């Protein structure tokens, strides 16, 4: 049975080879990249010792630590069956329950493919059987664990929202659909996990459960007209369009493609198909799976419009909305194009975004190979995905912060997190060999230099890749065994930063490689014992942020280097370091350890040691630096340091911070609301409440005088609202377009000490006056008053 990835890329190559690729690529020319490509399956790859292999091993242990019966708790409970394990905490105890199980199924399949551990397969088959039992007990085709929060706060079986939706009773708002948290996103995760089990070893029960689930939602969607469908799709739906398209690919039943095409968010996808970047202020990970779905639909139908949207989205995100580590989004949202320098915060780079961007990259590469696609893939995989797992604990980050001195927050394994990024983390770290090696007609492509043993069945060859890359610039691919003699090509990716500088040898002699679209291609009659090697220059370079040359990061080869600011156990409150001088790179000196550098005289306020960013698991880092000439520094130093001091002062006095309009902070602070909506404006998220409504939330307090500081935009139309703390009005705020127009501004309200004395937390409420609005409020901070 071919894997889903093999099915995917095989279809893409077959469909698009004639329509997209140039004529020369269609010929049997082993000095050019082949037209049809697919990744080698994970079953053909065994990782050799490296940080990647360690990540797989750590993740393998995490998968074994998780208990399937606990993840199945709600699936059985809501179907009327007795649960066999206690419910997990965190998100699994909320209305988004069940999404982790979908990722877990996929991770079990991937780990089985990479390790041959029969326990992975046994667990996956067990879970599928349990889902089949729960589905049969319900009798509707539906099976799920998602919940629905009623107005009294109780959580019940989330299936009850779908009959409401079919009647046209749709209350959709970003992440909430009729009281359930991103329910179709959760359905997609289960759908995808079942499809992966089916593809992994041909489990027929997995396909039957999927078909029942698909038929249920086909009926739900068929009850909606186009306007109602768009209203529903205003709530995050993950990559459900991809799953229905994939079900069509498995069954060739046209009804599933009909559903896949209806799962199309006009508001987001139409501009992308028209090559318009309107991503600013959109929730990033809500969008990426939609484009993966369009890519899969294109592979199966040839729809050029879908391909245009997917390509354009990838180009804009990677070129104009991404950070140096390959991740994107600040506090989960895209900012304006080329504005990264304004969004270097402690909430950058949600892991799920990169997990999905790598999937999209593989789709595009399958259509038409280009080394530039894997330049991005390598950067994000090495610097973001590898930073997301703590190899000591097996925990995962939600965000990977790039603000100087910020601490990475890792989940506690198998207990209380189960964020979306725990699920995507379990899957990401189960497949580090997945996209490293691709095959085409008489050709093997090396896309990622990850040490591995390779079984290339199509050519009857066993090979091994030996390298210390990216710490060393040389990688050697050896032909260990060859079943039959013959001529074939080996294509080694030459990253863009090494273009024209790569040295390629065969058995120690110049290889006479040809170069095509970012690859050095060596075509010859190979024999057992032959070895082809590539050496890439690993010089330091500075890279500016898109749109702002004054803010830079340091790289060596594909690796982002960071200033080491010390362990996370030590608080960090110094000014953000800056780089000052005319020839900055000349001041970096190699240390004894690989890829580690010391500085001399260019870092302000003092020299730093630069190390691989991804390995800073339990240390604080500085990744981005404002750079100055000596003359500029003299002018800017006072203002620069004063602003840094102001920001540090606010941070130091902060007791609690509420990022309004953002999913996780609002849940962490138990936000409650009526007639209230998240808003986005000028790159900032917020929330307002309309007449007759309100929003309130919990904030931590501590003894002593406190201030409540709210942020507003200085260009609002007239509106008036009250601010209450524990039901006591502390202020009436009026907004108008005369108050500091053209910028955001803060207003601080003094809290009477009697309101907070003896308390650990308070509830803050914003209530509009009649026929007015409260806010928008772009964040609230509770501060200790200056002494």
Description of the molecule:
- With 787 residues, the protein is an alpha+beta fold.
- It has five domains: 1-23 and 265-413, Glycosyltransferase (Alpha/alpha barrel), CATH 1.50.10.20; 66-263, no CATH class; 437-467 and 474-535, Immunoglobulin-like (Sandwich); 540-628, no CATH class; 655-784, Sandwich (Jelly Rolls).
- Helix content is 35%, strand content 26%.
- Strands 19, 20, 21, 22, 23, 24, 25, 26, 27 and 28 form a ten-stranded mixed sheet that branches. A seven-stranded antiparallel sheet has the order 2-10-11-12-18-14-15, with no helix packed on it.
- Strand 3 (147-149) and strand 4 form a beta hairpin.
User: How far apart are the termini?
Assistant: 69 Å
Shape: globular
Low-confidence stretches: 1-27
Strand content: 25-35%
Could you tell me the mean pLDDT? 92
Secondary structure class reads alpha+beta
Instruction: Report the biggest beta sheet as strand number plus sense, adding barrel if it closes.
Output: 10 strands, mixed
